[in-house]
Write the structure tokens for this entry.
Amino acid sequence: MRITVIILAGLFASGQTNVTRDWTQWRGPARDGIVSAAAAPDVWPASLKPAWRVEIGEGYSSPVVAAGRIYTHSRRDPAEVVTALNLADGKVVWQKTYEAPYAKNSYAKGMAKGPNATPLVADGRLFTIGATGRLVAWDAATGKELWAQDYSASVDFSKLFCGTAASPLIVNGNLVVQVGSDIHGGRILALDPATGATRWTWKGLGPGYASPVVIEAAGVRQIVTMTNGSIVGLDAATGRELWTSPFAAEFHENIVTPVWTGSTLVVSSPQHGTHAYEIARDGQAWKATELWKNADVTMYMSSPVLGDGLLYGMSTKRRGNYVALDIKTGVVKWATEGREGEHASILLTPKHVVFLSNKGVMSVVRRGAAAFEAEKKYDNLAGAGETWAVPVFAGRDVIVRDAGGISRFSGT
């Protein structure tokens, strides 16, 4: 049996202000950047105005939303901070702080110390993992610490730019985390969400900053992720490595989240461009075979979204340009002139693709169009700073995390 896989080398409700959609993990409920039809607007607001803003500290972790609360993970050096805010007014419901000191890589002085991984909310628990590798389970309602695991001994910052960055996920009733570093190697662990006890462990190359995703190919549920030099697929039930494909990256920066089409997996890096692989199964053996590559589309930190037979993403070329690739061939269908920024968070609604640049400019583009044409553009959503986090849409509003705080912008 042959399965095609492509791997690539980070809610508005129309007219209703009381409708929210829980956004419980990295890139949304399915980790694919897709906003539900029930929450997406038929008509986008004319403008977005600040409703409230709360200082929470630095970091790149994206906010998550569940049951009317926003959960954030941030840093006030030398501590990391976990905060629960009321979605409606931004008031702090609870806040917890723990010490997490470390000496930063000298080549990354211009970057914040994190946290980088996005929290996860599941079954009344909030899971956070900080830059140093400290994993904590919190009671989402009260902020009580339920249990913690410290993987900091395996996180060496002498070569790592960002520390631990892979966002946790829940699969087969397990909490899955990816930890480690270039020097100590990497681990993917499945833990009991209630106790933190380890159920299985995979060991291999150190992590590459990307977050793992779950796919199902040939009837087998798999965890697919990037290491600092490869793509790996693990049996989600046992952690057994099913297949691996080399994917080396300069400075070991495999950052882009893999994308799964339902029959195809896609990866991208600045050095190698975007690649597509076929994953073939012969009995119990699996093999990854390259189908196509596009060396001119080089994705760095921005994870793409899939829709309309196209992969919508951001390339590093031309100082940042938005692109749409044919998912079957890798051919560019359209590309912007460039200078969009260093990064963009990209989301897909039923009718539009949304690009939020690190400059705080949000462009709303018609899906399936022959060219990039912004139907709406909203400026200054990052205030005086920048935003590197995935936004969360709530009613006619949008929640945006910037360099030091989190804001709610209301549609007018």
